[in-house]
């Protein structure tokens, strides 16, 4: 029987189960054991037909490789769309001495992230700020981040990139990493970071909850901040509009897995048509 789009779920049921999994099975103060239990939870969620909304598995590997190659002597990195703190935890664990600033819109997720990060023993190096990026990022002006990781819906990345540029949050040579580029159709963003302002590599990755589903991440090194606003093709702008519509549908009604898969295939076709494709695995 196909899944219904409007299944009744208790609020934050998945997130509370994640917290319970970590507290029951991980070791307090042991960041590696917390990461392990989060990844186990993602696999279990996938086997039940769910989606783990945090970077794990191959996505976490790309995140850490990109962050390790960020500007010289990285001291501060930014995590946009922190969710439950998984990405911030990976960054704090892999980059000793580096301070992580994470931004998350949902106040419940802010509380969850703070709990998990404190339990993992890295709360002193990670601050989780509540609020929307359009209000939070201007408040970070004056700080230069050696690396930024963005994990939001694809249609939102263009606005995030504009805020990063407007408030000068990246320096030449700094790294910008983005998740869900294929799965949620980050079309306008992909068109800009594959332009002359950045050197970008598109990496194929797999969802930890569904290893059969391919997604893309971009790892972009800033070359020239003045050249970030490159022209974007009509095909990409059309895909951007489709992504925005899909986000509205996902937020208001929910979307069936088959619908999301169809969108990903359409996005793949559009990206390849304009010359955006992942490197060979």
Automatic annotation (TrEMBL):
GO biological process entries: catecholamine metabolic process; methylation
Superkingdom: Eukaryota
Enzyme Commission number(s) of this protein: 2.1.1.6
Example of a GO MF term: catechol O-methyltransferase activity
Listed Gene3D superfamilies: Vaccinia Virus protein VP39 (3.40.50.150)
Keywords: Catecholamine metabolism, Methyltransferase, S-adenosyl-L-methionine, Transferase
Family matches, as InterPro entries: SAM-dependent_MTases_sf, SAM_O-MeTrfase
CDD domains from the UniProt entry: AdoMet_MTases
Keyword Transferase annotated: yes
Family of the protein in this entry: Belongs to the class I-like SAM-binding methyltransferase superfamily. Cation-dependent O-methyltransferase family.
Name assigned to this protein: catechol O-methyltransferase
Species annotation: Symbiodinium necroappetens
Gene field: Comt
């Amino acid at each position: 029987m196909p899944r219904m789009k409007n299944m009744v779920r208790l609020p934050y049921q998945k997130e509370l189960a994640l917290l319970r999994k970590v507290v029951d099975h991980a070791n307090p103060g042991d960041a590696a054991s917390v990461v392990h239990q989060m990844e186990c939870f993602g696999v279990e969620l996938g086997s039940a037909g769910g989606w783990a909304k945090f970077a794990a598995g191959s996505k976490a590997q790309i995140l850490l490789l990109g962050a390790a190659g960020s500007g010289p002597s990285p001291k501060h990195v930014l995590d946009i769309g922190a969710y439950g703190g998984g990405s911030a935890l990976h960054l704090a664990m892999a980059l000793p001495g580096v301070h992580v600033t994470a931004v998350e819109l949902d106040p419940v997720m802010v509380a969850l992230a703070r709990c998990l990060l404190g339990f993992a023993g890295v709360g002193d190096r990670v601050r989780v700020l509540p609020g929307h990026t359009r209000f939070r990022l201007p408040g970070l002006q004056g700080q230069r981040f050696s690396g930024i990781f963005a994990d939001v819906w694809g249609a939102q990345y263009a606005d995030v990139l504009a805020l990063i540029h407007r408030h000068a949050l990246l320096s030449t040579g700094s790294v910008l990493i983005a998740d869900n580029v294929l799965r949620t159709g980050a079309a306008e963003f992909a068109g800009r970071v594959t332009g002359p302002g950045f050197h970008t590599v598109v990496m194929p990755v797999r969802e930890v909850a569904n290893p059969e589903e391919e997604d893309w991440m971009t790892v972009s090194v800033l070359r020239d901040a003045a050249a970030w606003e490159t022209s974007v093709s009509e095909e990409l702008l059309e895909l951007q509009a489709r992504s925005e519509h899909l986000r509205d549908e996902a937020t208001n009604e929910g979307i069936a897995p088959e619908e999301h898969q169809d969108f990903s295939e359409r996005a793949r076709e559009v990206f390849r048509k304009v010359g955006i494709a992942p490197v060979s695995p």
